[in-house]
Structures are given as C-alpha cells and as structure tokens.
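Sat 14:20. Reprocessing the chain from the morning session after the first attempt stalled halfway. Input below, unchanged.
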Amino acid sequence: MAVLWLVLLAGLPVFFLGVLVWAVLEHFRTAQVPRVLQHRAKVRFLHCMLLYTMAVGNILEKLRICSMPRFLRFLQDRVTIKNNREVVVTDLRFGTIPVRLFRPKAASSSLRRGILFYHGGGSMFGSLDSYHNLCSFLARETDSVLLSVGYRKAPEHHSPVAVTDCLNASIYFLKTLEAYGVDPSRVVACGESFGGGIVALITQTLVGRTDLPQIRAQVLIYPFTQAINLQLPSYQQNPNVPFLSLQLMLTCMCSYLAIDVSWKDAMLKGACIPRDFWDKHRKWLSSDNLPKRFRSKDQQPETLAPFNEAAYLETKHILDVDNVPLIAEDKIIAQLPEAFLVTCEVDIVRDDSLLYKKRLEDQGVRVTWYHVEDGFHGCLVLFDKMFFSFPCSLNIMNAVVSYVKGL
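Finished this time. Tokens:
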C-alpha cells in the first residue's frame, strides 16, 4: 500500500503538468486575442492559467471532492488583502447575509456619500475577499462609506437568491444609513459584470419605494442586462475572447437559472423565444438599436429558429423581467436614477450594455458613457495586480472614482 501511495504521489507532478499543457494547447486552439488589446502576451498567460485552474476544478468535481466554482473561489480568496491604513474595515451580517463595511478612517464634519457594491463573477465566482482591495480603494479615493454584499452563488444557489440577498442587504443599509454616517441623499449603487446586472434589477425594484432613501446614481460596469438575444454583434465578434467566452457565459447563466446545459443550442438560436414575445420586445432587443459603429457588415442577421415549446418550458425564466432589466416597462425605466455606464470593446456582453444605455436615454435618464477601446470583460479587478494589471483596468477605476466624486 505504501508503495502504491508513493507511485501516486510521484505521478501528481506529471499529471498537473499534463493539465497545464492541455490548457495552453486549448488556449491557442480556441482563444481569439484581438490586436486592439494591449499586452497580448499577458492576456494569453492569464487565460491559460484560468483554463488550467478550471480544468483542475472540473477534475475535482468529477472526483466529487468539490465543485469547480467552489475550487476557483477558494483560489480567488487566496489573493493578498492589502492593509489600507486609511480605511476601517468591518465584517458584519445583515441577518444571514455577510457584508463588509469600508469606512474612511479620517474624521468627517458631515455625513459621507454611501456606495452599495455588488461584485461580479457570473453568479458563480467572486467573493468579499477577492473584491476587498477594489472596494477599499474605491472607499478611500471617493471618501465614501462602502458596503460590499457577499451574496450566495451558483451552483449551490439559483435565481433569484443572489438578487434577493443583495436587495435585502441594500434595504437594511438604506434604513440605517445615519448609523454608518451616510448622507441619505448621496447613495450610489455600483456593480461589476453580474453585479452590474444586479444594480440594474435593484434600482428598478426600488422605484416608487417612498419608505426608503432614493438611490442617487447607478454605476454599471460592463453589466449583464439580458440573456434573450444571443445573436447581437458583440456575441458574433467575441465568442472566444479570453476570460468570458460564449460557452463560459452560457455555463454561468444555465447554472444560475437552473437550466440544463443541453438547452444551450436552443438558447443560442432563439428557439425558446415565442414569436409574440419577440414581436413585443424586439424594439428593445434588436441590434437595430445599436450605434452603427458596433454593427458589422459581415455579421449574420438575427433570425429565430423554429419555436421549440419544450425548450421554452425549460428556459422560460430567461424571459422574465425579474432576470432581464433590459425589458422593464418604460414607466419603470423613466424613474431610474442617472447612470454611469462602462463598456469594453472586446466584450461579449458589450451590446447588452449599449441596448440598456439606449433604453435609459430614450426615457430621459441621464447616462454618462465610458467606452474602453482596449478593454475586456473582467479587467477592472486586475487594476491593482501590479505586473498583471492593464492600462484599461486603472483607466476604468479612475473613471468610476471621478464620476462618484462628482456626485
């Protein structure tokens, strides 16, 4: 038995090396790294590491040791949390929901601005720890009290748990602002990626709530706003861009919405969309609403496959307004707070954000748009990673800080 264990241990380095070789080959076989991106070799290295850790996670999942998302979250939480002496950090629980409060240490003669922050990660990844440095920096640079919400994630928890956790934590915070030294007239909701979609949903949900302070502004950093039209130009142009490929996006979406992955093809082709639904919402979902510069002459036209009732019954919650802020009624959109919207050129969900921008502007909501030509999905969290940071990462962070300080 001892010999067997020695053989197994000796074989582990070879095994992990083999997985790494597979990840590198898979990257060069499938990934597209557009020339517009800066430091393309760095992008390739980081993407290979992502593929490698996901592959190891999938192996651990098949061995029933732990799920792949849990493994990645474990690795993400190993990042070094920087000790920012200018910010006081407190871990709290609002009921059962873990939250982290960031408050500037310096005394203030008046109430400070408040920021509600919802992290990204496609509903499966990310945590209070992995976004700690970002939140600490944002609280310090904007001189704000920031609350980061540690919502529950897929695959252990499905829709609408993440949004419900964030909504409940936000309502509790809004009801107790003065206890944290926050000015009720200056509360900003901010989210990145999946968290940006949560911002859109929560600000819509809070419309008309006279018992709560009104959200002053919403900061949407390359948000998810729909999962209905997966034939938009950005989906056709960026299906294999590193960090958020089409397949990874669909995997996250299916996990969160508890949809079997066997329905991916039907979702991509629109076979699960009833024709009357498309006819009603096409005015908001179609690429016709995008600026011309984002539409390519070479793109395939948006055509729905023949309606598949079985696919519709299994995936119909992707059509629910509680999951799709883009299709909220005009009367709700018109009452939303002003927005700061960040989009990245090399991002599969770029056009989702642009469609939401148009919806807001059409209803008279002020939108400050910041488009990053050399940006890619997820780049913001790398802003302080030194060698692994990118110019676009810091540019987005600085733009967000500047906007929030100007409120």
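The longest strand covers residues 182-192.
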